[in-house]
From TrEMBL:
Lineage: Eukaryota, Metazoa, Ecdysozoa, Arthropoda, Hexapoda
UniProt entry keywords in alphabetical sequence: Coiled coil
A Pfam family that the UniProt record links to this protein: DFRP_C
Residue ranges occupied by any RWD domain in the UniProt entry: 11-118
Protein name, per record: RWD domain-containing protein
Segments forming a coiled coil: 112-143
C-alpha cells in the first residue's frame, strides 16, 4: 500500500502540539511550515545575557518523512560565529539517521542537546580564562616577594646609587677634603687609632708595656712648648 505522506504529516503536527504545550507555532499548512523554540536552562528572554537560544523553522517536503524536511535557524541569541552552521550540520546528520520515520521530535531534542553541550563548553572556557587570569595576578604578587638575585656588579651599582641618594657620597668627599687640610698634630689628636697602632707595634715586637723605657728628659722642658691652653676653649671648666 502506498504511504499517505500528508496524513502522516498531519498526525505528527497534532502530536507535536500536544508535546510542546502551545510552543508550536504553525505558519502554513500546505505544505506544513512551523516553528519551535529551543533554549538552554540558563537562558532568560528578559535578560538575554546568559544561555543560548534560537528557533527552528521546519517545512515539510511533499514526500516527508521519506525525504528530509527543510530546516532553518531563526532568532539566534548569544550565538558565537559559526554556531548556526555547526547546529545545522548537526541537525542534518540526525535527519540522515531518521529518514523514513517521523523525526521532528528527534531533531528538536538533538538540537536542544547540542545547545546544552555548547553552552557547557562556553562556561568551562570562561571559568578556565578566569582561573588563568587569577593565576597570573597571583604570580605577579609573588614576584614582589621573591626579590632580585644580587651579583657583585648589581650590588655595587645599587650601593653607588644609594649613597648618592642619601647624600653619603657628598659627605665622604667633604670629610676627605677637610682631612687633607688638617695638620699632623690635629690628625694625631683626632685619631686615637695612631695611639693604638703604636701599642700594637710594641706588643707585636714582644715587648710588654712595663718593659718599655721612657726617656724622661724628653719631657723636662715640656712647659716651654707652645701648646694651646685649655683655657682658650670656650667650653673649658676648671677643676
Amino acid at each position: 500500500m502506498e504511504r499517505n505522506h500528508h496524513e502522516d504529516q498531519c498526525n505528527e503536527i497534532e502530536a507535536l502540539d500536544s508535546i510542546y504545550c502551545g510552543e508550536l507555532e504553525v505558519l502554513e499548512t500546505e505544505p506544513h511550515k512551523f516553528r519551535l523554540p529551543i533554549a538552554t536552562t540558563e537562558y532568560d528572554p528578559e535578560v538575554e545575557t546568559e544561555g543560548l537560544s534560537c528557533k527552528l523553522l521546519f517545512t515539510y517536503t511533499e514526500k516527508y518523512p521519506d525525504t528530509a524536511p527543510l530546516v532553518e535557524i531563526e532568532e539566534p541569541s548569544n550565538f558565537h560565529d559559526g554556531y548556526e552552521e555547526e547546529l545545522l550540520e548537526h541537525i542534518h546528520k540526525t535527519i540522515e539517521e531518521n529518514i523514513g520515520i517521523e523525526m521532528i521530535f528527534s531533531l528538536v531534542s538533538s538540537a536542544q542537546e547540542w545547545l546544552n553541550v555548547k553552552y557547557d563548553e562556553l562556561k568551562n572556557a570562561a571559568e578556565t580564562a578566569k582561573e588563568e587570569a587569577k593565576r597570573r595576578v597571583e604570580e605577579e604578587e609573588m614576584k614582589k616577594f621573591e626579590g632580585t638575585r644580587v651579583t657583585v656588579e648589581s650590588f655595587m651599582v645599587w650601593k653607588l646609587q644609594f649613597e648618592q641618594d642619601m647624600g653619603i657620597t657628598e659627605r665622604k668627599e667633604k670629610v676627605a677634603a677637610e682631612s687633607r687640610k688638617l695638620t699632623g698634630r690635629e690628625l694625631f689628636l683626632n685619631d686615637n687609632t695612631l695611639n693604638e697602632s703604636d701599642l700594637k707595634f710594641l706588643m707585636d715586637a714582644g715587648e710588654s708595656i712595663e718593659s718599655v723605657r721612657i726617656d724622661e728628659s724628653l719631657f723636662q722642658n715640656i712647659d716651654d712648648l707652645d701648646l694651646d691652653s685649655d683655657t682658650d676653649d670656650e667650653d673649658y671648666v676648671p677643676e
